[in-house]
Design goal:
Layout: H1 3-20, H2 25-32, H3 36-48, H4 59-74, E1 78-82, H5 89-108, E2 115-118, H6 122-129, E3 140-143, H7 159-167, E4 170-172, H8 183-190, H9 193-202, E5 207-211, E6 213-214, H10 220-223, H11 229-237, E7 240-244, E8 247-250, E9 276-280, H12 287-295, E10 301-305, H13 306-314
Parallel strand pairs: 1-10, 2-3, 2-5, 3-4, 5-9, 9-10
Antiparallel strand pairs: 6-7, 7-8
Helix pairs in contact: 1-3, 2-3, 4-13, 5-6, 6-7, 12-13
Length: about 325
C-alpha cells in the first residue's frame, strides 16, 4: 500500500468517526493516535477526495461499520475489521497482521509497566512481526502456552519471545509441553515452582493476545503433530470448531470436554473474563471458530477480516 493510500485509509476512518459516529475531533485524534490538528486535516481531506457524500465511499467505512456491529452484539471493547473482498487468504492474513500490530502497539507504547500475556499460532506471530521496535524494558511478556516440544526443544509456537524481543522487556516462559504425556505427567509439570510462578504472573496480565484455531485435518494442531487424525475426527464428532490455548470450543460457544483436557498444561482460559483478551484471526476456514469464540464470550477484543465479520453477524 502506498503512502497516499494509507493516508486515504486514515482519512476515511476519521470521516466515519466524525460524520457517522458523531465523534469530536479530539476523540478522533486520541483514537487514531494523532494530534487534533491532524485529525481536522484528515476529515477535510476525506471531503476533498470525494470520500464523503451521503455515505462514505471507501471500503474502510464498511469495515468500521461491521466492527461497530460486532462490538455492540458481542460486547467487545476493541474491534478492527480489514477489507477482504477480492483478497485471497494470504492477503487477508497479511492485512489482519498489520491491523493487529496497530492494536498491539496501543498497549506496548505505554510508559507504565505492562504485563502482556501471549498465546501462540501463525497469525499471532505474523502480527508481532509487523510491530516496530519499542524501547519498553519495563514491560513483561508472559507465555500462556507451553512451547516445549516432545523432544525437549523449543517450538515455533514460542511466540511471546518474539514480542519480548520487540519491547526489550522480560520474558517468562511456561516450562511445559502443550499436552503432557499423561495426566500424571501433567501434574508433575504443573506443580513445578517455575510453572506456578509464571501462571500466577499470567493471572495478573493487563492484556492477553491470543489466536483462534480451527479444527479439521488441515489445522496446525494436527499438521504440527500435537493431535492425531483420530483425535481430530473425535473432536469433529463432538461439534468442536475452535481451539484457544488448547481449550476446545463447540459451535455453540461452550467448552467441550475431551481426554486431552487431562494432559493440557496451558494457562486456564475462562469465558467472560475480566481480563482484556484480544484475538487475531481471519480467513474463510476460521469463520465458525471466530463465531464460537464470540458466542461463548471467550474474547472481548477481535481483529479480523470483512468476510469473517459478515459471516459471524449473519449467523
Amino acid at each position: 500500500m502506498s503512502k497516499h493510500d494509507k493516508k486515504l485509509d486514515l482519512a476515511a476512518r476519521a470521516a466515519w468517526m466524525y460524520y457517522v459516529a458523531g465523534e469530536t475531533q479530539q476523540d478522533i485524534a486520541e483514537k487514531l493516535g494523532v494530534s487534533r490538528q491532524v485529525a481536522q486535516r484528515l476529515v477535510a481531506l476525506a471531503a476533498e477526495q470525494g470520500l464523503v457524500s451521503v455515505n462514505i465511499t471507501h471500503p474502510v467505512a464498511q469495515c468500521m461499520s461491521l466492527a461497530e456491529q460486532l462490538k455492540a452484539r458481542f460486547n467487545l471493547s476493541v474491534c478492527q475489521v480489514v477489507p477482504s473482498d477480492g483478497v485471497d487468504n494470504r492477503g487477508i492474513y497479511q492485512m489482519v497482521a498489520v491491523a493487529g500490530a496497530e492494536v498491539m502497539a496501543q498497549t506496548l507504547k505505554r510508559s507504565e509497566p505492562q504485563i502482556i500475556a501471549v498465546g501462540s499460532g501463525r497469525m499471532l506471530r505474523a502480527t508481532i512481526d509487523e510491530l516496530p521496535e519499542f524501547d519498553r524494558p519495563q514491560h513483561s511478556c508472559v507465555s500462556l502456552i507451553g512451547a516445549i516440544a516432545t523432544d525437549g526443544s523449543c517450538t515455533r509456537y514460542d511466540v511471546p519471545l518474539w514480542m519480548a524481543e520487540k519491547t526489550q522487556g522480560r520474558y517468562f516462559i511456561l516450562p511445559a509441553p502443550l499436552f503432557a504425556d499423561s495426566a500424571e505427567d501433567r501434574t508433575l509439570w504443573c506443580n513445578h515452582r517455575i510453572y506456578r510462578t509464571v501462571t500466577e504472573k499470567a493471572a495478573q496480565a493487563d492484556v492477553m493476545f491470543i489466536g483462534i484455531g480451527h479444527i479439521d485435518t488441515d489445522c496446525p494442531l494436527h499438521a504440527d503433530g500435537f493431535i492425531t487424525g483420530e483425535q481430530v475426527a473425535t473432536l469433529q464428532a463432538q461439534h468442536v470448531v475452535a481451539e484457544m490455548l488448547g481449550h476446545f470450543i463447540g459451535e455453540d460457544g461452550e467448552r467441550v470436554s475431551c481426554e486431552l483436557d487431562q494432559r493440557l498444561t496451558s494457562v486456564p482460559l475462562t469465558p467472560h473474563s475480566a481480563c482484556n483478551i484480544i484475538a487475531f484471526c481471519g480467513g474463510k476456514e476460521k469463520h465458525r471458530a471466530i463465531a464460537a469464540a464470540l458466542k461463548g464470550g471467550w474474547i472481548n477484543g477481535l481483529v479480523t477480516d470483512e468476510a469473517s465479520a459478515r459471516a459471524v453477524l449473519a449467523g
